[in-house]
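Predict the assembly for these two chains.
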Amino acid sequence: MTSPGYFLEHLWLIPLFPLISAALMFFFGRHLPKSAVSFLCVGSVFLSFLHAAGAVLKLLSFDPEHRVFQQILFEWITPGPIPVAGALTPFIADWGYLLDPLSCVMVLVVTGVGFLIHVYSIGYMGHEGGYYRFFGYLNLFMFSMLTLVLANNLLLLFVGWEGVGLCSYLLIGFYFLKKSASDAGKKAFIVNRVGDTGFLLGIFYIAVTFGTVRFTTQGLANPLAFTGITETLKALIDNNLLLVGAPALTAIALLLFVGATGKSAQLPLYIWLPDAMEGPTPVSALIHAATMVTAGVYMVARMNAIYQLAPIAMDVVAIVGATTAIFAASMALVQNDIKKVLAYSTISQLGYMFLALGVGAFAAGVFHLMTHAFFKALLFLGAGSVIHALSGEQDLRKMGGLWNTVPATSRPFLIATLAISGMPPLAGFFSKDEILGRTFSRVATVDRYLALWIVGLITAGLTAFYMFRLLFLTFFGLSRVSPEVEHHIHESPKTMTVPLMILAALSIVGGWFALPALWGEESSFEKFLEPVLRGVVPETAAVIFPRHTLLIEYLLMAASVGIAGLGIWLAYNLYIKYPQLLTKLAPLWPELHNLLIHKYYVDEIYDALFVNRIKDLSTALGLFDAKVIDGLGVDGAGWLARVISSLSMWWDKWVVDGLVNFVGRFTRFLSHPIRMFQTGVFSSYALMIMIGLVILLAYYGYHMQVLVRNLR
Amino acid sequence: MMSPAHYLFLSLALFLIGCIGVVTRRNVIVVLMSIELILNAVNINLVLFSRIFGDVAGQVFALFIIADAAAEAAVGLGIIIAFFRNRETVFSDEMDLLKW
């Protein structure tokens, strides 16, 4: 193996740069001028990006089978015994970083898109208070996210996972004086806790099944000295200690997926993401579209070895993904808030990714993750730019006709819209087509995948429709902007528009890794990821895709492009050509329209089922606390103490003191006669001396008399 | 010729008068004077026995006692004057603060 070189050796610097600047912001940010804050925070992310790019380039120079580099910084959780298969085994978790093709993709997306969004934020947040706080949180987020994607074990991944959750909470609630914003932050945090419980249980299950949480031992200087999940899994399968589809594997896969549904906003835990739009728009772009919400996808792809051996869990992932995709897309159709449309779109696209993972097309899922990061970040930043131009207006009904007013925003926005709709040759076309194609190829072996494919195809049409609805309502037609806002419309500053252009370029070329697939070859992206995603048992059905002929391939492409075109045509007719049609359409199915407007009443159902029940429980517990704990416990203890102490005081006063006083009085009583001699008059003392002298002399004289008599 | 018994009786009489004076009189100055009587009774005894035994030590002692009595009278009168300034009395039955 060739020498790692500077960038790989200094892999640990990638997460460290943003951490340092985040720490600086927290301690000194208040006193720094805005220019220094921008320079430090954006600069640190840029340094991270440079180091990440350097490390990835170095890794690419290795031959494909050895493109993995692992670096253990220190032993983080020192050996402690845990029961594995009935025997106590020392359990170690280290603080280490792993760079393999999968984390390469993630780290480039996170630092690259993250850097662009940081630059954009300079312009977007320029007039806001708490500038340093915003950038501090954003950099802390970058640190957590990079820890998440670079972690070489599940526990460290979990640290990053919780870190991004925290930053998400902090940034959603950035305008914390607004009640809706702080509520949205809490909602995001609490809903994520539900998922994280499953995730943590999954990690525990993995620890007691495999005795380790390290992903792999590959890329370590001395692989034999360590154990990794992949290697242990392979050993267990090879020795028939675990079977394909074993309950333990299914349970682990499902528990981890519960975590993924929370973080990646899938059914039934997607409800926090639309509310998360309360945060500043760059936050929505970075955290709630491009990076954090894809952590679930990354995690499932990272644990693909286990998923491939758990067919039931795979089906669950695919079904949840497909359902979420169409469900969220249908809700996006009627939203009037520009960011809410994009939020539901994000949920829908994440559903696509999980559909891909569920049918075993891990590479396609990760590919869509990457392209989605480009065009969805662009969409959010574009939306932010529009909102900026309209002085904070987010309602689509109060926009329109902005195509030529804000040209540097509207052109990239069109590109992103085309990309997400799946128009060739933009990025979204390749990744979406890859997912649909892979899903369809499974139909040959298992019929039920046909339903998933159809759902995916319909979602593609819905996506094109609602995205073009958004585009038309924002930039075309007659202006519905209120007059007082109209004066202030201005194109955003360069710091905002340049990232838009770069992202637009990426949205165009981002899919071209998959070009060879057009000629029936394996795409280069898939080839790149193959060493990570091949699983431990090559012959498991999940990874075998029957290749279809080129003709079917082109037909599938035509189908997906066709349905997207249909969606665009519908949107054009409804929102540009015959806008009056819309007012006639909505009353046709009032129930359906109502259902969509109210987002299927899911929030209301959750409120009724869980939130209010928990509130009831809290009220009951509060009453219990006030009445029983405080009333009986604390007040009762106080009352009891008072009674006991008054008893004790009585005893002290009458018995203990009484005894002492009695002794004193008794002594005084006994000594009373003797005391009476002390008259204080000295003549009486003199009398007593004389009497004493007389008695003494009498006694002496008497004895002398006896003595003298005896002498005689 | 006077026998030693005469001297002894005189001494006894002086002594008893002194003692009765000390015990019965209220006036502290009179008490002091009675003490002088007692001391002189002792002196008579000392001189008497010095003559009887031909030993001069008794007479020397008598001289000491005379000196002592003078000193005692001076201190005693001083105390009484100081006391009188404070309490305006020289009666011993009114000096009874140190009782019981």
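Chain A touches chain B through eleven residues (CB under 8 Å). The mean pLDDT of chain A is 87.
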